[in-house]
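Design a sequence for this backbone.
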């Protein structure tokens, strides 16, 4: 039996992307197709998404969806997979980012924008839209989680789909004042401790988690970590209460997009058997970042520059990194103070540290293909994708032992090196001393070419495609459909 699944999210690669969520949502249809799961993706009608639609056709209209007219348009994602787009110009046709205005401030009505997306998803998943039937509604993060609450409290005329809510990062919860509740089109009983009420306000993610038939996180370790107040961000009690329906499934990466043998963003393509071609990419990175040419260790960072990502600690370590013989090419943006700190570091160490503030997708590929190691000192990391890209490209991950980083990188301790299974460097406790030590270990490993190449090849031969993860999602869906 083919399972019809509706995947609902606020972004999806290659149409719109601010982070790893988009990569996951974009990859799911192809990952699930071999397991007899047909995925349709529902996205907001941002201008960039609407421009991508080729001859869209309207299949449903709402005279008033959260107070504004809206249409549902049908198209394809990446030219292949079914795509539905919620066209509501009052909510999504704006300059600025997906979630923020041109000055980086959250849109005041984000609650309304994503409640509309969730309501539309619930209508699709409960028979409101003629000719559309779904067995599973899969909602991603707080922007779509309320769909599960709508199906629970206010479904349409058909049989409601079973619901899965995936937590990509529990730190982002969609919390709003109780004053928004009357405009959510939910019955009064939904404003309750086992509904959408959260510390006297409204919690969009919280309401979705309370209502979902299954909850997933993006790694097994993160599924355990969010039971701890240090990681659960206030929702650890809810997660613990529903632990029997919580599953951790590691994200995959798309080898059609992230493959050093075919990647057109690289100066030279290569495989684990042709690593001798890789230095051409290192030369290209050096040129892009105005770094001194050399064979010594070149580290990279491709990240949001935030406290969560441990970038404040890295800023304290860069002088020692240079003193030890390393260089750094950083691509990212985030906290203004951290951006300033890394610019100052580049000024202190011309030719040794290069900084590019912003994001550039092709450049991120070149950095993975040219740098020797990628630094990921996150304080918490639900899954992480940059370390998976690093593994695939022979860019050795240096990671904090948390979440998906712990699940996907094998530390290069002596036992792992002797067994030939090491793929990176792990460290505990995100602190200056711990990161300094991890960087020193990495530099020492880089100085032993045979061991370094072994670590690179072992990482490149690891399977972090969607094959295993796609199967696990399919099994979860089938289990829900047969309950």
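Sequence:
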């Amino acid at each position: 039996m083919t399972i019809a699944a509706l995947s609902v999210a606020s972004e999806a690669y290659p149409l719109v992307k601010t982070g790893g969520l988009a990569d996951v949502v974009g990859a799911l249809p192809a990952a699930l197709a071999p397991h007899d799961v047909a995925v349709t993706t529902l996205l907001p009608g941002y201008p960039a998404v609407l421009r991508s639609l080729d001859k869209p056709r309207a299949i449903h209209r709402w005279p008033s969806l959260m107070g504004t007219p809206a249409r549902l348009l049908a198209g394809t994602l990446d030219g292949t997979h079914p795509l539905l787009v919620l066209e509501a110009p009052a909510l999504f046709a704006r300059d600025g980012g997906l979630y923020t205005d041109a000055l980086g401030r959250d849109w005041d009505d984000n609650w309304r924008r994503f409640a509309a997306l969730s309501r539309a998803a619930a209508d699709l998943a409960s028979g409101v839209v003629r000719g559309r039937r779904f067995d599973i509604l899969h909602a991603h993060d707080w922007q779509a989680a309320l769909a599960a609450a709508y199906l629970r409290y206010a479904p349409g005329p058909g049989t409601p789909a079973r619901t899965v809510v995936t937590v990509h990062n529990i730190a982002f919860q969609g919390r709003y004042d109780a004053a928004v509740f009357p405009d959510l089109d939910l019955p009064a009983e939904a404003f309750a401790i086992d509904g959408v009420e959260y510390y006297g306000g409204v919690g969009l993610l919280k309401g979705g988690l309370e209502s979902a038939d299954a909850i997933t996180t993006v790694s097994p370790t993160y599924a355990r970590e969010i039971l701890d107040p240090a990681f659960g961000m206030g929702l650890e009690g809810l997660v613990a209460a529903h632990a029997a329906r919580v599953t951790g499934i590691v994200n995959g990466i798309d080898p059609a997009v992230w493959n050093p043998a075919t990647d057109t963003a690289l100066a030279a393509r290569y495989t684990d058997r042709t690593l001798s071609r890789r230095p051409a990419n290192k030369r290209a990175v050096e040129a892009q970042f105005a770094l001194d040419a050399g064979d010594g260790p070149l580290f990279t960072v491709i990240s949001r520059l935030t406290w969560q990502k441990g970038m404040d600690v890295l800023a304290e370590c860069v002088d020692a990194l240079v003193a030890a013989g390393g260089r750094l090419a950083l691509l990212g943006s985030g906290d203004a103070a951290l951006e300033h700190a890394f610019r100052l570091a580049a000024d202190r160490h011309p030719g040794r540290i290069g900084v590019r503030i912003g994001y550039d997708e092709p450049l991120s590929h070149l950095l993975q293909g040219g740098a020797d190691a990628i630094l990921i000192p996150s304080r918490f990391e639900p899954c992480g994708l940059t370390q998976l890209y690093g593994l695939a490209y022979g860019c050795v991950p240096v990671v904090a032992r948390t979440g998906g980083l712990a699940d996907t990188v094998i530390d290069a301790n002596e036992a792992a090196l002797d067994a030939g299974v090491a793929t990176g460097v792990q460290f505990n406790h995100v602190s200056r001393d711990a990161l300094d030590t991890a960087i020193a270990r990495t530099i020492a490993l880089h100085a032993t070419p045979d061991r370094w190449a072994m670590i690179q090849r072992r990482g490149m031969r690891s399977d972090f495609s969607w094959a295993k993860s796609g199967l696990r999602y399919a099994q979860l869906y089938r289990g829900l459909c047969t309950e």
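The chain has a mean pLDDT of 96.
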